[in-house]
Amino acid sequence: MGTIVCQSCNSTIDHFEDEKVSVLYSHKCNCCDTENHEQQK
Question: Which InterPro entries match (predicted)?
Fold first, then answer.
């Protein structure tokens, strides 16, 4: 079982099937996009 984690806010984005337990980091998630969008207004 693997986990995809947001690099910015450290929240879990998704899980995926894998032989090893691992964590992958993504650059953006929905909550970060919303926060950045609201701050730019």
Answer: SR1P
State the Cα torsion 13-15-21-26 to the nearest 10°. -30
Rounded to 5°, angle at Cα 6 from 37 and 39: 15
What's the pLDDT band for 39 if we cut at 50, 70, 90? very low
pTM of the model: 0.60
Left if phi > 0, otherwise alpha if psi is -120 to 50, otherwise beta: which for 35?
Answer: alpha
Q: Which of 4, 2, 38, 39 is nearest to 17 (CA)?
A: 2
